[in-house]
Design a protein that fits this description.
By secondary structure, the chain is mainly alpha-helical. The protein has eleven helices and four strands.
């Protein structure tokens, strides 16, 4: 509890999003009205109806497992991204809010266009915004070891990110649920572009770390 309070103090925006997403997702599990009211319907959005669902769809999830993995990934990256990675400064409070909200919207726009004539199609989940958080963090710490849950292998964050996008592309082509797998890719792209817009210096820092890492391997 003390650790979480410390995180909440250092990253209030990330904390608020974390708590509200869990609460609304749990409510939607038991309320069909909330679920139906929050879910993204590209057919409607493309016709200027239910536009708010570009945001509310990121506050609900398909099931417990979907919620768990999204919030676990968010927990590992979001608080540090807002507050800082040890000696590496974070993105900042209002910047984190901008990153998350804009990425949530931008990651869904390609889906709205893709399914604008599909009345049957719906999607939900915070995956786009969470991907934005992950890839924004990767720009700050590209060589930080990361691993997949349940596997002992740990690889540099930048390689983890590349594999993550490959998986998202695969899942998008095979997906038969309401989870918006396309949002992973476009969320990741949005997260990186917004981060670079807010902090242009991160580009030189990213490549400097990569070059130093490669040089350390060749010595």
């Amino acid at each position: 509890m003390n650790d979480f309070l410390a995180l909440a103090t250092a990253a209030p925006v990330a904390t608020f999003i974390f708590i509200i997403t869990i609460i609304t997702s749990l409510v939607a599990f038991w309320s069909d009205d909330v679920y139906a009211g929050f879910i993204l319907h590209p057919y409607s959005v493309s016709r200027n109806s239910r536009v708010y669902t570009l945001i509310t769809s990121g506050l609900i999830h398909n099931d417990w497992m979907h919620l768990f993995f999204n919030m676990l990934s968010y927990y590992y990256f979001a608080f540090a991204l807002e507050a800082g990675f040890g000696d590496v400064p974070g993105i900042g409070h209002w910047q984190f809010a901008m990153l998350y909200i804009f990425s949530l919207i931008l990651s869904d726009l390609p889906t709205v266009y893709k399914h604008k004539n599909d009345d049957w199609y719906h999607s939900l989940g915070a995956s786009g915004a969470v991907s934005a958080v992950i890839f924004s963090a990767i720009l700050y710490i590209p060589l930080q070891p990361m691993g997949f849950i349940g596997l002992p292998i740990r690889i540099p964050a930048v390689i983890f990110g590349a594999l993550y996008l490959v998986y998202c592309n695969y899942a998008s082509k095979r997906g038969r649920d309401n989870i918006n797998h396309d949002a992973h890719f476009f969320g990741a792209l949005s997260g990186m572009l917004i981060t670079i817009f807010l902090h242009p210096h991160i580009v030189s820092s990213f490549f400097s770390q990569i070059i130093q890492g490669v040089q350390s391997l060749t010595r």
